[in-house]
Amino acid sequence: MKKNVSLEKRKTFRHGDLRNALVTAGLEMARAGGPNAVILREATRQAGVAPNAAYRHFAGQAELLDAVRSACLSRVAAAIEDEMKKHKAGRNPQAFARKSLHAVGMGYLGFAMREPGMFRTAFSVPPPVHSPDPANTASMGLNPFQLLSLALDRMQESGLLNRKDRKGAEYLAWSTVHGLALLALEGPLHKMPREMVLALGERLVVMVERGLS
Amino acid sequence: MKKNVSLEKRKTFRHGDLRNALVTAGLEMARAGGPNAVILREATRQAGVAPNAAYRHFAGQAELLDAVRSACLSRVAAAIEDEMKKHKAGRNPQAFARKSLHAVGMGYLGFAMREPGMFRTAFSVPPPVHSPDPANTASMGLNPFQLLSLALDRMQESGLLNRKDRKGAEYLAWSTVHGLALLALEGPLHKMPREMVLALGERLVVMVERGLS
DNA sequence: ATCGAAAAGTGAACACTGTCCACAAATGCC
DNA sequence: GGCATTTGTGGACAGTGTTCACTTTTCGAT
Question: Is the per-residue pLDDT at B130 higher than 80?
């Protein structure tokens, strides 16, 4: 649909939506080859525009990459939300809390296995820390970090986690799944089959549950 | 300063040790800027040699990077060994096992904080999995993965870990510290002060200990 | 409605990268 | 001593990010 934009030479001198076109092209490159495959000139080529035109919308390639990364982060958040929405709050808050934490971890890992390029792009270079940047968020309006915090809050509220252990628990839980994801994607475990990675992920989440408190 | 080597033009037409010189230069670039800062032409420049000369020793930039990564991995292993050697086996095997595992984790994290560029380079792109490649090893002849296995073996032998849970425990333990390291180095936590990262690391290792079994 | 400033695109250039080719010099081996 | 093999040179090419001067379009104030 919107690819035609790149093929048929546009009639208007102005492109009209160049910034979005560039980000979209960059996103596709990130999907295919990770962060350092997002090439500025190639994006302009796909948008049917001269290379320098990009500089009217981005200060440079780094800024384009930033925009692409935001888009990738948003996808990660969406994947986590999808996983969380599979379980509704029932009459057992502790079971719900466990399921929530589990969903965050496995949603994260599942996306990493499903979309390696986007995942690697999302967490490659310095993104601002807990930015409430609306571009990073999915429908619930929370980024991956905040979704994790939500799950941990449920753990605490349901009595599975005391206040002492709650502090900084985000970082501990996040580290585990993030580490496994990167070891499997671009680390020494990159040959391990995905289902085995996900199985390890299950054990990992259990370990976190047990080890946090 | 150190680059006199590059400044004084060599008398011999042959360089004599070009391969090593290139790896050394590459290692310094990796230290300063991570994996994609190791530039082939720059290495030849520092070695005082024409760019193409590198192709007599490496098939291309990727292969040079591979050699540099091996060197980095070796440093990681050395850091872990240093940490492990701080504790000798006493009369309490369980305490020794715990200290060993702790040392592996903190040696790993400590190196990551101390030498971010080298660490990121060591684990950036696909290295062969558990290669007994002697280039990746330090004085004990073990790479980081094997050092971790050793520590976990001690856990099992001393009865802290049963056979069921021992299987694949390397990957679970490794994931945690690796994840924290990368989140802190090139992820959303890159602004967190190092001592706080190390403090989190302590909690993380404890969590692993408790959560594994 | 006009006209002028600002926005958005073009074209040509530069420095830098990795890589390949044909050739020259040094080494070592018989 | 002569000769093949290694090792380095010089010159070239495509691809990248980036900048500068210029043109075209749009839009808002008069």
Answer: no
Amino acid A28: pLDDT:
98
Tokens for B213?
């079994």
Using an 8 Å CB-CB cutoff, list chain B residues near A145: 188
Joined tokens for residue B129 = 């999995």
Dihedral sign for Cα B23, B25, B31, B36, please. negative
Residues of A with CB under 8 A from a CB of B: 36, 123-130, 145, 168, 171-172, 174-183, 186-191, 200, 203-204, 206-212
Which of A36, A83, A65 lies closest to A177, judged by CA? A83
Place of tokens 């992820």: B187
Element (H, E) at B4: helix B4-7
Q: What pLDDT digit, counting tens, does each position of A99-123 carry?
A: 999 999 999 999 999 999 999 999 9
The enclosing H or E element of B183 equals helix B169-186
Strand C close to B50 by CB, under 7 A: no
Give me the torsion for CA of B111, B114, B116, B121, rounded to 10°. -40
Nearest to B26 by CA among B9, B10, B57: B57
Cβ-defined contact of A178 to B200 (cutoff 8 Å): no
Between residue 176 and residue 195 of chain A, the positions with Cβ below 7 Å from nucleic chain D are none
Alpha-carbon B46 to chain mean position: 24
Is strand C within 7 Å of residue B62 (CB)? yes
A51 touches strand D (CB under 7 A): yes
Tokens of A155: 């753990």
Domains of chain B, each with CATH number or no CATH: 73-212 (1.10.357)
pLDDT in tens, A81-104: 999 999 999 999 999 999 999 999
Q: Tell me which chain A residues have a C-beta less than 8 angstroms from the C-beta of B191.
A: 129
The number of helix segments (H) and strand segments (E) in chain A equals 10, 0
Angle at B171 between CA B170 and CA B176, to 5 degrees: 105
